[in-house]
Amino acid sequence: MSTSTFESLVSDLTRDVQRAQPKDALQFCANWFQSRLEEQRTLSRDTLHRHARDIHASSDLYVDVPMTGSGYSPGIGGPSVPNGPSRSSPAPATISPFSTPGPGPSLGLGQHAPPISPFAQPPPQNQPPPSSSQRSSLRNSASYSPFGTLNVAGNALLSEDHGMQTPPVFRIDGKDLPPTSPLTTSPPVNPFGYEQQQLSPPAPGDYLHPPTSAIFARRTSVSAESILVDGLDAKPLPVYQKSPDQLRRIKASIQNNFIFRDLDEEQETGVLNAMQEKTTVKDEVVIRQGDVGDYFYVVESGLLECYIRSNPLPPTWSSASPSASPKLAENKFLAPGHHPEFGKKVAECREGNSFGELALMYGHPRAATVLSIEPSTLWALDRTTFRTIILQAAYRKRTMYEHFLSTVPLLGSLEAAEKSKIADALVSRIYVDGEAVVKQGEMGDNFFFVEEGEAVCTKRDGQGQEITVGRLKKGDYFGGLYPHLFVRALLLIIPFHSAELSLLRMEPRAATVSAVNRADPSQPKLKVAALDAPAFTRLLGPLREIMERKAGERYGR
Ligand SMILES: Nc1ncnc2c1ncn2[C@@H]1O[C@@H]2COP(=O)(O)O[C@H]2[C@H]1O
User: Fold this and answer.
1) Residue 355 CA, ligand 1 centroid: distance in Å
2) What sign does the dihedral 335-349-533-209 (CA atoms) show?
3) CB-CB neighbours of 521 under 10 Å
4) Residue of minimum CA distance from atom 20 in ligand 1
5) What pLDDT, in 10s, does the model give residues 194-242?
6) What pLDDT shows up at residue 67?
7) Which PROSITE patterns does this chain map to (predicted)?
8) Model confidence at 372, in pLDDT bands (50, 70, 90)?
9) Which of 287, 292, 304 to mutate to test the pocket of ligand 1 (most atoms within 8 A of CB)?
């Protein structure tokens, strides 16, 4: 592993620990590394898959062979599902989750062995390890490694010659991809909007990190699709026709949801196309803990509750409907916040909230049961679209912003972890031609940089005439103090300087910055990344004094 990869891992871990402030730091680190490893292995599998397909290689080279019936599942810790449906062929992406009644998802439970956690309990004594015929084709090498079945960068096997291919190098936009999870970006608040219960939550730390194996009470595994990092091999995403009213309702449901915030127009269209309407009745189980993740949901109306059961689930659990047992139905709520079958209540989901992201993000079984408390209307997004569009957008956003922030001299004194926090807090906005991003005279409450397209800076002179004082293009910034820009575009000194000062001192903007009227409509619209004032103060707080002093020295204010 190169030093830079190591440093980048350590700095990412440090950032996430600072954010999550876990009670059990060691467990948090263990989960964190496991999650990274699994994500990278998934990427490896996908790349090997593509390579193998190109050279017509046997699928044994890249597909984990199921360890059927062994029950050897140290990563998950629960009993196996002896009669679980087999995964004979992948379900088409357009299969509706709502066509078949019953608790299980439309995709069958895989019988593949789950990723073996290096941090898990050893297998029970009375259960032998899988026989050699049941193991992966890589059985003499990585399949017994706690780190999985592929020879990926970071795997100790790389130091030995196993006659295997050189591990692939992953690149996005020409940049090497370190072993990383695309969404370890959990902010201190729950971005998915559901209200977490404060009553002794079962998992320590931040649930957005891969849930601990303790809550996966039934053995399931997921052969996760990888994130399509280069888009070259993208499968067509599902498209479900919608009425204008449905489109309006989806947009209203997702408008304040963090997860959709960074999508560009094309990505948003992809998401809107792929969403399917689902209505639930009272007491319907929408997600069952331990199942394979198939859909992500946004709540348009109604109320749902999330429950976590920490002790092992009975093997027949998935076939039991919540109302199947009259006893359970009678004693439904033995104690407040506790369901006799589904366990402890951990969250509520209402209008505009979303749920079901964890299993899709991490390829783990469902971490909780989600029960409809009132008849509800949901919008469901399939796993492939979720991973292809939403995770990719989040990953690209972070990578792009981190790269940008690393080029800003003023931020040079910030730690990598601090820059990552800023990257995560930036929000993209698109402006139509002529639309103002900031207006002269308004109070400054945001800080921006140009992601795409061009902006024009104008200023009213003493006679009220609008004068163009400069143009901004990709990589230029306003609302911030970036001296090199002033050198490059002297005319921009006034608006840049003023915009920055207005943010620091909450003075009115001294110039207007708007989207240019494009001569060529095929050119991109103006897209900016914004940092709002509270985030600016919170994240750049340590720099505030320096910035104010520098602004004063440089511009005499
Ligand atoms: N405390 C929690 N732990 C795990 N999942 C939770 C919690 N609160 C709400 N949930 C949601 O419940 C969902 C169950 O399915 P997922 O694991 O895919 O994603 C989970 C989250 O969206």
Assistant:
1) 6
2) positive
3) 7
4) 356
5) 655 543 333 322 233 334 333 333 333 333 333 333 343 457 899 999 9
6) 32
7) CNMP_BINDING_1, CNMP_BINDING_2, CNMP_BINDING_3
8) very high
9) 287
- What pLDDT does 66 receive? 33
Q: Whose CA is nearest to atom 19 of ligand 1?
A: 356
Cα(369) to centroid of ligand 1, in Å?
A: 8
Determine the 3-state secondary structure of 73 from DSSP. coil
Geometric angle at alpha carbon 111, from 276 and 153, rounded to 5°: 90
Decide: 61 and 163 in contact? Cβ < 8 Å: no
Q: Is the ipTM of this complex over 0.95?
A: yes
Q: How confident is the model at residue 361 (pLDDT cuts 50, 70, 90)?
A: confident
Q: Which atom of ligand 1 is nearest to the CA of 194?
A: 9
- For residue 173, what pLDDT is reported? 38
Ligand 1: residue whose CA is nearest its atom 3: 207
Atom of ligand 1 nearest to the CA of 367: 17
- Whether 306 is in the pocket of ligand 1, judged by its Cβ within 6 Å, is yes
Report how far apart, in Å, the C-alpha atoms of 549 and of each of 12, 501, 554 are: 31, 11, 8
What are the counts of helices (DSSP H) followed by strands (DSSP E) for the chain? Answer: 12, 20
**Could you say which DSSP state residue 156 is in?**
G
List Cβ neighbours of 29 (8 Å cut-off, separation of 6 or more).
13, 17
Q: Tokens standing for 435?
A: 């639309």
Contacts of 420 (CB under 8 A, 6+ apart): 11, 12, 15, 185, 398, 402
Per-residue pLDDT band at 26 (split at 50, 70, 90): confident
Nearest-CA residue for ligand 1 atom 13 is 356
Q: Where are the beta strands (DSSP E) in 179-251?
A: 195-196
pLDDT at 243: 95
Q: Is residue 498 predicted with pLDDT exceeding 60?
A: no
